[in-house]
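Replying to the earlier thread about multi-chain prediction with a worked example.

Input:
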Amino acid sequence: MREFTTPQALQTFRRSLTGSIGFVPTMGALHNGHISLIKESVAHNDHTIVSIFVNPTQFLEGEDLDKYPRKIEADLKICEMAGVEAVFMPTTDAVYNPDEMRFLAPRVKGYILEGYHRPGHFDGMLQIVLKLLNLVRPTRAYFGKKDAQQLYLIQKMVHDLYLDTEIVPCEIVREEDGLALSSRNIYLSDSDRIRALTLSKALKHATHLIISGERKSEAIIQEMKQVLNVDKLDYIAIVDRNFDRLEEVIVKESIILIAAWVGGTRLIDNIWV
Ligand code: AMP
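Result:
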């Protein structure tokens, strides 16, 4: 497996490749969620490239940039065993310069929900994903539905800027008890973890309500709040696949999203119904 730390070295390698290229961007501390994306890519492409980069521009002042888990040795082993051909792990200075062009998230869809609670987060996320897509020029790039709004905005960027990459959405990987895998789960104490489970329980409860005929978003959201045991709820929202709010659930076209704090940890989860 090749390891690159500069954009130039990655570009030279990329130019030597023929055939289809799958790309999986990550911030490292890889878990089974990331591995499922990598496996999809390895199964469907001639070459797979993974990036590992904790992107500072998508963290807000006061967020967990400094303590975000970094496990580069273990990550490289995981990539090698999964059949990854190259890993790109740049320093911040290698991919950013102080006075550079900026690409900004859309004013509406980039500033609701996650974008409302983390203003500017999606600007930084899209800036780095655009750079990475331009460097790797992948045939397909793999993103988890776990970060549903991120996935939507990346699909929109690819559409709006005519990028020549297929974005492949991947299912959310969960622990056996339902907790969605996240690199941030390691912050949770045992008692926090039990309360963190109430996010997926609330989403499951919403599904049961919908199966039994409930369609009204407000009624579903109120019931979900009864299930949640968190320190602070940022939002529960029911939207369509374009992130427009729905008064009523439309089956097979809706996403139910939660963001909440448990202890000092901010968690997100969602279900596509
Ligand atoms: P991150 O390292 O958190 O930036 O995530 C990198 C990619 O992995 C993103 O496309 C995430 O949506 C995806 N991902 C993270 N957690 C999960 C999960 N539990 N299941 C599926 N994909 C995930």
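The pocket of adenosine monophosphate is lined by residues 26-27, 33-34, 36-37, 143-144, 146-147, 170, 172-173, 180-183 (CB under 6 Å).

Feel free to reuse this layout for your own posts.
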